[in-house]
Amino acid sequence: MKRLFMLLAALSLFTACSDDDTPNYTFPERPGSGEESGGEEGGDKPTPTEQKPCYIWVDAAANFPDFANDLTKIERDLKQAQEAGFTDVVVDVRPTTGDVLFKTEYCRQVAWLGAWTANGYEKIERTATWDYLGAFIEAGHKLGLRIHAGFNTMVGGRSSSLGNEGILYRDADKKDWATTLNTSSGYLNTLDTENDTPFFNPFNPEVQNYICSLLKDLAAYTDLDGIILDRGRFDSMQSDFSERARSEFEKYCGHKVDFVKDVLPQGHSGAVNAQMLAQHKDLKKWLEFRAKAIHDFMQKAKDAVRSVNQKVKFGVYVGGWYSTYYDVGVNWGSPLYNTSAHFEWATPAYKDFGYADLMDQMLIGAYANPLKVYGSTEWTMQGFCSLAMTHTAGSCPLVVGGPDVGNWDLEDKVSEEEEHKAIVNSVEACYNACNGYFLFDMIHLKKGSLWQYAAEGLDKIKK
User: Fold this and answer.
1) Residue 241 exposed, middle or buried by CB count within 10 Å (0-12, 13-18, 19+)
2) Sign (positive/negative) of CA torsion 347, 254, 183, 235?
3) Residue 353: which residues within 8 A CB-CB, separation 6 or more?
4) Can you count the helices (H) and strands (E) in the chain?
5) Are 237 and 264 in contact, with CB atoms under 8 Å apart?
6) Which of 330, 295, 100, 306 is nearest to 208 (CA)?
7) pLDDT tens string for the chain (463 positions)?
8) For residue 462, what is the enclosing H or E element?
9) Dihedral in degrees, nearest 10, Cα atoms 365, 366, 369, 372
10) Is 274 exposed, middle or buried (0-12, 13-18, 19+ CB in 10 A)?
11) Long-range contacts of 298-304 (CB under 8 A, 24+ apart)
C-alpha cells in the first residue's frame, strides 16, 4: 500500500564544509522571535540559526486534499516537519495552473486543484476563505520555522482530465503571452499543441510585468521569510520561437536569422551535440541569448520584490543538472564561473548571464536515484550539491540541495529498505556538500510514512 500511495503522489508532481566551520546565516526576523517580543506564552520559540538550514517543499496540488480547507492539518504537518528537524518550509502559492494562494488583485485565487488520492485523480475544491499563505506563516512562525513562498513563474495554465484552469485558458486575449514551440509540425503556439502545462513567452514584456505585479503583492507579506521562484525559465529547448524572439535575436546578433538553418532543426528537443554546433552557426549565440533573457528577467523580478520588501530573501529553485540546463535557457551559475572553459555549447560571454549573484538563496534539485546518494558527478545527490558550489562560485550566500524522495524510483526497482536508507544518508551527503539540505516533497513523507527516516538523517547532522 505504501508503494501505491508513493506512486500516486509522484504522478501529481512534475517538478563541502564540516559542522565545525558552518556559518550562522542571518534570516529576516520572525514575528515574536526577537528579544523585544518576549516570546510566546509557555516558553521561548526555537530559533533555527545554529545550524545550516534544512528546507522541505510543500507542493500545492499534491497536498491540497489536506491543506485546502483545514487549518488544523497545516498546523499538524508543520509541527511534524519541525519535530523532524527541518528549519525552513517552502509553501507553493502559485501552482502550475498559474492561479494563486495569496492576496493579490492581479490574478484569480485557486478554486480547485487536481490531486491523486486513494480514490484516484480527484478535483479538490477550495471553499475556505482564509488566507492560505498567511496561515502557513502564522503556524510556521509559532513553531520557529521560516516560511518561504514557492512561486511557479512562467506557467499560465494547466490542462487535465478534470478540466482547464489558468489565465491562458480563460482569456483569449492572452494567447500572445503563450510561448511558441519549435515542433515537428512547425512553429506553433503552445495552446495549439497537446502541451498540458502551457508556458508564457519569457521575451514578452507584458508577461514580465504581469509576473512582477504578482511578486510585488507576494512581497507585501512583511512577515514572509523568502520567495523562491520555480520554473523561472523557458518551457524547453523548443521554446521560444516566436516572431518576437526572432526579431530580438536578430538585433542581438546583428544579422538576419533563419531559425531552421542557423539555430535549431525543426522539432528538435533535448541536448545539442558537436555536429549540431558545427552545422548551425548561431546555435551557441542563441543559447547565450536565452540565458541573457532569463538573467535580465531575474534582475527585474528581484527589483520588483525589493521595491516592496527589503528584508525578504529572494531566490530560485533549479535542477542540479547544470551541464544540460541550457535547454531551458538558464545559467544559474556565477558570472565568475567560466562556463565555456568546461562546456563546448557555451560562448565566452555565456558566463556573463549567470544569475547566482542576484540570489539570496538557491535550492538545487539533487534528484538522483536512491542508489546514487554519494559521488562527485551529476546524477548523484552529493555530486549535484558539490558541483553546485563550484558553478555558483561563492556568488550566492546560500546554496542548498537535496533529493526528490518520491519520484526517484518510478519503475520500482529499488527496495523500500534501500529507499529508507537513501533518505537517511541523503541528509548528510547533501548537507555537508553545500550550505544545507533540501527535500522534495512533504507529500511523500506523509503518504509513505517516511518522516522517521528524514528525522534520523537530520538528527545525525545535529550531532
Assistant:
1) buried
2) positive
3) 288, 291, 292, 294, 295, 331, 335
4) 13, 14
5) yes
6) 295
7) 444 444 444 444 544 333 333 333 344 343 333 333 333 333 333 344 468 999 999 999 999 999 999 999 999 999 999 999 999 999 999 999 999 999 999 999 999 999 999 999 999 999 999 999 999 999 999 999 999 999 999 999 999 999 999 999 999 999 999 999 999 999 999 999 999 999 999 999 999 999 999 999 999 999 999 999 999 999 999 999 999 999 999 999 999 999 999 999 999 998 999 999 999 999 999 999 999 999 999 999 999 999 999 999 999 999 999 999 999 999 999 999 999 999 999 999 999 999 999 999 999 999 999 999 999 999 999 999 999 999 999 999 999 999 999 999 999 999 999 999 999 999 999 999 999 999 999 999 999 999 999 999 999 998 8
8) helix 451-462
9) 180
10) exposed
11) 298/229, 298/232, 298/355, 298/358, 298/359, 299/355, 299/358, 300/208, 300/212, 301/153, 301/211, 301/212, 301/215, 301/229, 301/232, 302/358, 304/212, 304/213, 304/215, 304/216, 304/219
CA 155, 157, 160, 165 torsion-angle sign = positive
For residue 333, give the nearest of 344, 347, 320, 345 by alpha carbon.
320
Joined together, the cell numbers standing for residue 132 give 492560505
Query: Grid coordinates representing 395?
Result: 556568488
Residues, the chain: 463
Distance between CA 201 and CA 178 in Å, rounded?
A: 5
Contact 98, 168 (CB under 8 A): yes
54-58 and 180-183 strand pairing:
unpaired
361-365 vs 313-319, strand pairing mode: parallel
The residue with cell 503563450 is: 178
Crossing angle of the two packed helices 381-392 and 416-431, in degrees rounded to 10:
20
Strand ranges, E, within 246-333: 313-319
Closest residue by Cα to residue 269 from 220, 235, 242: 235
- pTM (2 decimals)? 0.91
